[in-house]
Amino acid sequence: MDLGLKGKVAIITGSARGLGAATARRLAQEGASVVINDITADRARETTAALRDEGLIAHCVTGDITKAADVQRLVDETLATFGSIHILVNNAGAPRDKYLVKMSEEEWDFVIDVMLKGAFLATRAVMPGMIEQGWGRVINISSRAHFGNPTQVNYSAAKSGLIGMAKALSMEEGKYGITVNCVAPGFMETEMIQALPTYETIKERALAMQPVKRPGSPDDVADAVAFLASERASFISGEVLHVTGGRFG
């Protein structure tokens, strides 16, 4: 199935590894030019080089997604390199898990800033160009955690905020040919999760609670993002696509 992404330009934040890297690869395989963006410079360059080695079109712009100046540089360099921006995937994020009574203000701010403020800054920066060209796709990577998880008050709040943001923006920008949606992954076997000392316990609990008895993979999320970015999803906006193996609670 042709997704109509050939010639499109996509920025994927937090894409040096994991879900972001898999999404960048999938979009590039569909013919898009992708921009790898991450605060971890060495890893971002390695991912970009790997994509290029596969014959895909990729460019690297490192920076802090919570800083407006870095975000503007990301957009400016993308435009200078590729001439336009059609797709934004707000993927950057990281947990700081603790029970609320033990959570510091810094741990709250970090999670909210990276995921929610970062998505705000990036979307605000790309939106004028999308409006002018009359076509755009914004896809926020939320999480099944928007239903709530213990020790993740900050994370659940940020992921819920991304959904509210998408629903509001879909109402604002639809008249310009721009759709805004969310993908909400469940348990995914990423490098970050597999590195946790409690990984096996987390995996066992997740599989017990989801109808599809296998872990999710970054490619599962990447496929969902590619669909929502495509012409095949041009009449879908303000939605949340759960990639959870059937688990919702």
From TrEMBL:
GO terms for molecular function: 3-oxoacyl-[acyl-carrier-protein] reductase (NADPH) activity. Pfam families: adh_short_C2. One of its GO terms (biological process) is monocarboxylic acid metabolic process. Keywords: NADP, Oxidoreductase. The keyword Ubl conjugation does not apply. Coiled coil: none annotated. Gene3D superfamilies: NAD(P)-binding Rossmann-like Domain. It catalyses: a (3R)-hydroxyacyl-[ACP] + NADP(+) = a 3-oxoacyl-[ACP] + NADPH + H(+). InterPro entries: KR_dom (IPR057326), NAD(P)-bd_dom_sf (IPR036291), Sc_DH/Rdtase_CS (IPR020904), SDR (IPR050259), SDR_fam (IPR002347). Residues 8-186 form the Ketoreductase domain. Catalyzes the NADPH-dependent reduction of beta-ketoacyl-ACP substrates to beta-hydroxyacyl-ACP products, the first reductive step in the elongation cycle of fatty acid biosynthesis. Belongs to the short-chain dehydrogenases/reductases (SDR) family. This is 3-oxoacyl-[acyl-carrier-protein] reductase FabG. The lineage of its organism: Bacteria, Pseudomonadati, Pseudomonadota, Betaproteobacteria, Burkholderiales.
